[in-house]
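Reproducibility note. Readers wishing to regenerate the assembly model reported in the main text can use the exact inputs given here. Chain order matters: entities are listed in the order in which they were concatenated for prediction.
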Amino acid sequence: MFKKVRLFGQFVVMLSLALIFSSTQAQKPKVEGEKMENKEVTIRWFGHSCFMLSDSVKIVTDPFDKSVGYPVPNVSADIVLVSHEHFDHNNVSAISGKPEVIRGGQTKTAKGITFKAVKASHGDGRGDDYIRVWEFEGIRFAHFGDLGVDLTDSQYKEIGPVDVVFIPVGGYFTIDAEQAIKIINKMNPKVVFPMHYKTPVMGSGFPISTLEPFLKGKKNVVKVGKNSVRFSKDSLPKEMTVYVLEYK
Ligand SMILES: [Zn+2]
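Running the prediction on these inputs yields the following structure tokens for the assembly.
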């Protein structure tokens, strides 16, 4: 009788251990599932200020027309962002798939993503420019469009902390390399994509600077060597890094 009780006792202990083990096993996939919520984002450059972010939602920024010199982006998207209404930023008709177009000063939500518009200046009587700020797959992005003058303290506050920035560096129509460096040093994002600089395919209509003055003296520069790169929130670089993409 005594032995039986002891055996039963051992059985209860084993059963509890088995239950504890199986419950920790059952919790495990949930933890992994939570981590997997931060999916990778592919960032592809078409040239000038036009990028596409994908995969779960396809977002295109500032599509240009053929007069810029790069091949016109020929892709389908869910959302197109337009920073201001100039031909090298608003060629929305090039993008197929009936995208929702977000332009002007409205803060708008599309496909569950809120795109905040921060009013800025194109500079020199060129009108307004809208910096767009949004979070996608846990990463906070800011696209500066044709920002023409330095940011004010209240604009910095409105933009808030960001992980990835798309910033013009070519000068003439926009801020130049020196002004862009001042802004990124103040904002300290993890990833910087320079844009709106001169490349050999661009015509004389763009008397802007090449990328070189912006890269000069920078230690964390990755020349990707292709037109796209992928990040998840967890794989962003720890220190601010400039990524240079090819347009093709
Ligand atoms: Zn422009």
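We highlight two features of this model. The pocket of zinc ion is lined by residues 86, 88-89, 146, 173, 196 (CB under 6 Å). Residues 41-244 form a domain with the Metallo-beta-lactamase; Chain A fold (CATH 3.60.15.10).
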